[in-house]
Write a structure and sequence with these properties.
Elements lengths: L2 E4 H13 L4 E3 L6 E5 L3 H11 L8 E3 L3 H5 L6 H10 L4 E6 L8 H4 L4 E5 L4 H9 L3 E2 L14 H8 L5 E4 L10 E6 L2 E6 L5 H8 L4 E2 L21 E3 L9 E5 L14 E3 L6 H16 L5 E4 L8 H12 L8
């Protein structure tokens, strides 16, 4: 079973494990990540093994500063502007992999690009202290609901990893936004903690949506992902028999009083609050014994795009999903 150590007491132990090639669950501002030395192929393989993650699905590399990022990826002018504006923070940039970069091919899943993020807090300190870029997907079984507390990590992976660093509940609650700039066009590969409108304001142009290629270019692009065991029904206008309710805002849909269980993403309709509570509320309703989870509509504006993306993947058909 994993040791659980408070963030302010865990850095030395976490560094020892990272340098020894072991995976460590760490808090970030988005969700908890399963961290390992991105330069060590055996360590990265431990991430895939612990999560049950398919190896065609690349990992994000977390860095402590721009200098570390530039040792791994090649920045174009637009990506450089985005890094200046949003780093450290919940934005991942998919960049061409720099020739000779000391990153395991398992991290990139054989692609010639690499996703890089400069996080806030413990993950950045871990990269700085070890001097190693840190590969860190979400610290959960692959395809399942991402963890936003140390307890959620422990429930899912506690018997597979040596250490969970407890930094409390994560602030953002959904994963990073992923952007790739290609031929001067910025593409949103995954909505996340930085709203598309914020990025468009910086680059002065609309973001293209989705990948221009048929391959998986970044994490979180599989159709079924972030999924509880219980079926999810989106944009519900009524609660049906035996269902739980994932609510949003002050007004309820028909039949809410008969729901097996109810969790409200934000009683006031605040999208930031909704994002921060999304995965914990999904996980709670998953444990309610309901036959399905009915989800009230969530606006698509701002970070609502990321919330709706996660909900759509949680509701997607499960056949062929990653586990």
């Amino acid at each position: 079973m994993a040791d659980i150590i408070r963030e302010d007491q865990a850095l030395e132990r976490a560094c020892e494990l990272i340098l020894a090639g072991r995976p460590v669950a760490v808090p970030t501002e988005t969700v908890y990540g399963l961290a390992a030395d991105a330069t060590n192929g055996e360590a990265v393989a431990c991430i895939y093994e612990a999560k049950g993650r398919p190896r065609f699905n690349p990992l994000i590399v977390h860095v402590c500063d721009r200098a570390m990022a530039e040792e791994i990826g090649v920045f174009d002018p637009v990506s450089a502007r985005l890094a200046e504006e949003f780093w450290p923070g919940p934005l991942t940039l998919v960049l061409p992999l720099k020739a000779g970069a000391q990153v395991s091919p398992l991290v990139t899943a054989g692609l010639d690009t690499v996703g890089i993020r400069m996080p806030l807090g413990f993950a950045a300190r871990l990269a700085a202290r070890t001097g190693r870029p840190i590969a860190a997907p979400s610290a959960n079984a692959s395809g399942r609901v991402s963890p936003t507390t140390a307890a959620a990590v422990d429930a899912g992976l506690g018997d597979r990893i040596p250490l969970i660093v407890d930094g409390g509940a994560t602030a953002v609650g959904v994963e990073s936004t992923i952007v790739k700039v290609e031929d001067g066009v910025a593409r949103l590969l995954r909505p996340g903690g930085v709203a598309a409108e914020e990025i468009e304001a910086v680059i002065g142009a609309p973001l293209a949506r989705g990948s221009a290629k048929a391959t998986v270019e970044a994490p979180g692009m599989l159709a079924s992902h972030y999924a509880p065991n219980t079926a999810v029904r989106l944009n519900a206008t009524e609660v049906r028999g035996g269902e739980a309710l994932l609510a949003f805002g002050p007004k309820r849909i028909a039949g809410a009083g008969e729901a097996v269980a109810v969790e409200n993403l934000s009683k006031t309709g605040d999208l930031r609050e909704a994002a921060a509570s999304l995965f914990s509320h999904l996980a709670g309703l998953d444990r309610s014994g309901a036959r399905a989870i009915a989800v009230e509509p969530v606006p698509m504006r701002g970070i609502g795009e990321a919330i709706n993306d996660r909900l759509a993947r949680a509701a997607a058909p499960r056949d062929g999903e990653e586990h």
